[in-house]
Amino acid sequence: MNHHRLPLTLLVLLVSAVWGAEDWRLPAGHFEPARFPLTAIHPRPDSETSPEAYHRVAHPGMRWDCPVRAAFGAYPYHAQIVTGPAGMTIGSWLAKQPDGELTEDAAYCTLTWLKPSAGTHPIAVRITDQEGKTVDCTWTLVVDEQHHYFVAPVATGKGDGSSRADQAAFSGVYGASDKDPSPAKGKVVVLATGSYPLTTAFHLVAAWGKPVSIMAYPGDRPEIVAQAPGVRFLANSNDIMLTGLRLRGFRISNAGIISTYNHVERLSVWRNSFVDCAGDPKVNNNESIWFCARTEGSVKRKHVMLAENTFEGCVDIAAFVFYAVGPLLSERDVFTTTEAKIVEPVWFPKAVCDFDLRRHRFDNPGTGAPPYGVLDASNNVENGTASGEIRYNFVRARADGAAAFWNASATAATKACHDYRNTYIGAAVVAKDWKKSNHVDFVANVMQNPQGGLANDSAGFAVRDGECHGKDGIVDQAGKLTGAALERFRGQRGYHIYDGRRK
Fold first, then answer.
1. Is residue 463 situated within a structural domain?
2. C or N terminus of the chain, fewer CB within 10 Å?
3. Could you tell me which residues come within 8 angstroms of residue 80 by beta carbon, excluding any fewer than 6 positions away?
4. Contact, 311 vs 272, CB < 8 A?
5. Lowest-pLDDT range, 58-67, 161-170, 262-271, 341-350?
6. CA separation for the pair 503, 498 (Å, rounded)
7. Please, which residues have CB within 8 angstroms of residue 240's CB and are 6 or more apart in sequence?
8. 394-396 and 423-425 as β-strands: parallel, antiparallel, unpaired?
9. What are 230-250's pLDDT values in tens digits?
10. Domain end call among 143, 165, 198
11. CA angle 248-378-302, nearest 5°?
C-alpha cells in the first residue's frame, strides 16, 4: 500500500536541502524593512580603486582575509561567492546560539583564502538582504610577491622587507620627515608580532611616496605604542586599510588617532584594537579614534568603513567624529571601559553624513556618561543635513547621562533618520529635536532605564517603540529580553536577531 512513499531518511534529507537553501530568510516581523537601498561598501571595483589597494593584492601562501560589506537594506544579510578561486570561502550566514539567537561570527561576510596561489583571480561576491535585494562586489585579486613589505620591530635577515625572513625595521617605513619616500611605497605593510614605538606622525599619503595600507601578519598581534602626545596616523589617500593592529597609549587633542583631512575615499579601519587611548580632558571637540574633517563645499567621502574594532579603557574620546561622509558603514565595534567618565559620545556622525551604524556593543561606561549621549547622531553644524540609521546596537550606560541623543544642534537638520531595533539600558534615552523640521523615526527599540522609556521633547519624532520599555525587568544582565518581554517581543524588538523558530 505504501509502494510510492519515499523512505523517511530520504524525505528528511530532501526537506533539509530545500529548507537549508533559504534558511537565512527570517519570517516576517523578525526583521525590519529597508529604509534605504542596499548599497555595496567594500570592496569597490577595479575601475575605482588603485592597483595596490588591500583587497586587490595577496601574497602567495599567506592567508588572505577580506571584509565584504554592504550598508542599508534589510539586515541581516546572506553572502555567497559567485566567482572565485578554489579554496576561497566566505561566512555566508549568522551562527545560531543554543538559545536561538543569531550572532555574527568572525567569518560572517568575510572572504578567506588560506593559501593563495600565484596568479590573477577574478572575484565576485553577492550580498542579499532579507527582502531579496542584492548587490554584487566584483574585483580582481593579484597574487604575487611584489605587493607586500614585511616589517618587524628589529630588522631580520637582509632587512629589505621582501619576505617574512627578511623583515625591515619599522622606523624606516614612515620616515623621519613628512615627504621622505618610504621603501614600502605602493605596498601593503605587514607587521609581525612585537612592540612598535611610534615617535612621529605616520603618513598614509601615496603622493608623498608612503604606503596606504598596514596589516598584521595573519595570526600575529603587533602593537603600535605612541611615544608622545599628538602622534597619529595622517590619512590622505584613497583606498586606505588598517587591519589587525593593536594601538596603545595614544593621546589626542582636537583630532583623531587616525585623522583624515582631504577629500579621499574608500577608507577602512577593520579588526583593530585601541587600548588605553585618551583625549585631552581640557578639550571637548572632535577628540576621537578616527576623525574626518570637513571637506570643502561639504563634498562627501564615499565608502568609509569602521568595522569589528575593539576599544578597551579609552576615555575622553569618541570612536569616531565624522564630517562629510556617505555612505558610511560603522559595524560590530565593541567599546568597554571601567573608567568613571566618558566625555565624548562614542559614535558621533556630524554634518553632511549618510550613515549605517549597526550591531555595536557599548558596555559599562562608568558613572559619568556624556549628557548628550553615548551614541549621538546628527549633531550637525553649519546647516548640514544627515540621513541614516542606527540599528541593532546594544548600549548600556549606567550613568546619569543619555544612552542615545538626537539632534543637539539648533542650526542643523536631518533628512530621514531612523533609530530602531536597539537595546538601551541604564540611563535616559533622549530624543531632543530643537529644530522642529527634523524627522527621526524611533521604532522597535528596547529601553530599560530610570525613566521607564523615552524622554521625548519634540514633535519631529515619530515614536513607535512597541511598548517594550520600563524601569526594570525588561532585559537581563546580557541585555537579552527576559520574562514576559521575551515571550512577547523576541526577535521583534531590541538588538537581538532570532529566526522565529523554536530552539
1. yes
2. N
3. 90, 92, 125, 126, 128
4. no
5. 341-350
6. 10
7. 204, 212, 213, 264, 266, 267, 268
8. parallel
9. 999 999 999 999 999 999 999
10. 143
11. 70
Residue type, 177: S
Between CA 158 and CA 333 the distance in angstroms is 39
The total number of residues shown for the chain amounts to 503
DSSP string, 272-313: -EEES-EE-TT--SS-EEEEE---GGGPPB-SEEEES-EEES
Q: How far apart are CA 238 and CA 43, in angstroms?
A: 13
Beta strands in 109-204 (DSSP E): 110-113, 119-128, 134-143, 148-152, 168-169, 188-191, 194-198, 202-204
Higher per-residue confidence, 59 vs 361: 59
Give the count of domains, the chain: 2
310 strand-pairing partners = 273, 334
**What is the phi/psi pair of residue 43, to 5°?**
-80, 165
For residue 104, give the nearest of 298, 307, 287 by alpha carbon.
307
pTM for the model: 0.91
Res. 344 pLDDT band, cuts 50 70 90: low
Phi and psi of 180, rounded to 5°?
Answer: -70, 120
561598501: which residue's cell? 41
- The whole-angstrom separation of Cα 342 and Cα 371 is 10
Q: Is 486 helix (H, G, I), strand (E, B) or coil?
A: helix
Q: Which of 111, 143, 175 is the last residue of a domain?
A: 143
> With 60 as the cut, is the pLDDT of residue 399 above it?
no
DSSP secondary structure code for residue 489 in this structure: H
Digit-coded pLDDT (tens) for 144-164: 999 999 999 999 999 999 999
More confident call, 266 vs 426: 266
| Neighbour count for residue 452 (Cβ, 10 Å) | 12
146/353: higher pLDDT: 146
135 and 263 together in one domain? no
Name which residue leads in pLDDT, 24 or 343: 24
**Exposed (0-12), middle (13-18) or buried (19+): which is 287, by Cβ within 10 Å?**
buried
In a 10 Å sphere around its CB, with 0-12 CB exposed, 13-18 middle and 19+ buried, how is residue 2 labelled? exposed
Cα(364)–Cα(426) distance, integer angstroms: 10
Q: CA-CA distance, 180 to 187, in Å (whole number)?
A: 16
- What is the grid cell recorded at 2? 505504501
First vs last Cα of the chain: how many Å apart? 36
| Distance (Å, whole) CA 427 – CA 395 | 10
Let me know if residue 36 belongs to a domain.
yes
C-alpha cell, 494? 531590541
On whether residue 108 sits in a domain, the answer given is yes
Full residue range of the structural domain in which residue 368 is found: 249-489
- Is 175 part of a structural domain of the chain? no
DSSP state of 46: T
